[in-house]
Amino acid sequence: MLRMDLNRRRIIWGRRVAAPQFCRALLAISCIGTLAIAACQRSDDSVTEISVQEQITPQPPRVGPATVVVDLADAAAKPVSRATIMVEADMSHPGMGPVFDSARETAPGSYRTQIDFNMGGDWVVLLHIKLADGRKIERQMDVKGVRSN
Length: 149
Ligand SMILES: [Cu+2]
What we know:
About 30% of the residues lie in helices and about 40% in strands. It contains 1 helix and 7 strands.
């Protein structure tokens, strides 16, 4: 009798264990699915129809404030509004923090911000663009030889 009772308990215990494991498996599968979708959205293929034109002034670049203008247009050359653009400026050598600023849309599809090149040398300017529909575009501009006046 005692053994049967133990077996029964084990079965009940087994079921209790099985249920969370099944849930965990489902969770894992749904996470993988989410990651795959996120990866797809991040790929450039889905946003190839968006043209990104960037411009930094003054040219040639020098130490101090610089103006970054980013123009977004769709395949029909129509301005793309309501995007969020984070501008990140980094130097290639270690020991310096990046300079961040978000660009403001000053005309339909035209975004503008100022960044501060606070040291002479080679800079990399990254554009983290998020369109109104959630799609993302990443762009990199190499700004070499910023003059230290
Ligand atoms: Cu530096």
